[in-house]
User: Fold this.
Amino acid sequence: MSLDLRRPDFPRSLHLRLLLSMVAVAIVAVSVTGLVASRRTLAEFQAYVDTANAARYHRFTAALARDYSVDHGWADVLPDVERDSQLNGQRVVVADAQGIIVADSNQSLVGMPASAAWLNSQAPILANGVEVGTLYLDPVAGPSPADVAFVWAINRSVLLGAGVACLAAVAITLLLAGSIVKPVESLTAAARRMKTGDLAVQVPVGSEDEIGELAHAFNAMASGLAQQEKLRRSMVEDIAHELRTPLTNLRGYLEAARDGLLAPDSALVENLYEETMLLQRLVTDLQDLALADAGQLALVREPTPLSALAEQAVGILRPQAEAKGVTLQVAVPPELPLVDVDPGRIGQVLRNLLYNAYLHTPTGGRIAVAAQVQGPMVAVSVADTGLGISADDLPHVFDRFYRGDKSRARHTGGAGLGLAIVRQLVIAHNGNVSVTSETGQGSVFSFTVPVAS
Assistant:
């Protein structure tokens, strides 16, 4: 019958279940070991007794055979039988060839037939190679008291050892159960605290075994959840901030027009249009990021010349760059192999990187787009001679809503989603994105895309 751990009457305490399981294992192991040891010891003892009896039978039968040969029969054998009985402390019975008892050291069985139940205590008596009788040692008494006492001593020793072993197993199990269950109880308490919203909870790591690894994993999970919660709250705040600014502007323009402070002319319409487009771009960026996170970003990949994408992206930015006095350079050889990309999405990556470089490159600076083959990938870089990125900001440039300029001025960083979108789009193409920078020396943003087969 199998034991159903889900039954209500089964102990639910892990400590108790572990204790019962270990005790059961210990009892079974000790019982089997004791049984095997007892049987083996008894078998060896019986072999020793049989060997001793065989020697004794041989000595007695040899002496009786000599007496039979000298006396030509069993008439005078009783004195020898009584002597042998006194010397060895055993009852001696002799039967002739027909099975009739001719001598008994107790003198009570003479003339009676030998019992068939005495087979285990008999030995034939041979005179000149002919069986002339049978010797019986203690045929009625059975095993000697000494033998019985020895067997009982062995059994008592085995039982005592089994009891001591079981007690030792229980004591060791209690210690081990405590060392195992205590960390589990700590993890349970920490999980309950986490359930109530305390994501800063950590459990102590007291060992480097599997329980210690579990504690490390729990602490890492708790830290990750805390970090994700922090990012979530920060993202909500950032989204609210990014939406508040254009909405506030729209409301201000509309209230001014309603109150007659602004004339509903083309300038007002243009301002309202710009703010509306800003909202639309923000919503589109957030939608792209959400689709990328869910793995549902639709890509229409096809073999595409990278040089054409680079020229197109640079051409869009060129009027603004020329007005600012920033030089744009393209070093993407037309003979590069075609890349397996979605032209629209990789064009968006290039535009975001170029615009980011444009924002941080002062008048007289330079922005260069280059590409080269690296195995099965094509590596694209966008380098600028701008202000560079500090070492503190560098690990976070691809984070959402992150801007090195904490003032949140749009002319120094937009909504903080452009580089986050770059990373997600490149990852969606099975590529990698990275950045190197030095303050005052400019930055180099690089990404890879696969070569078309």
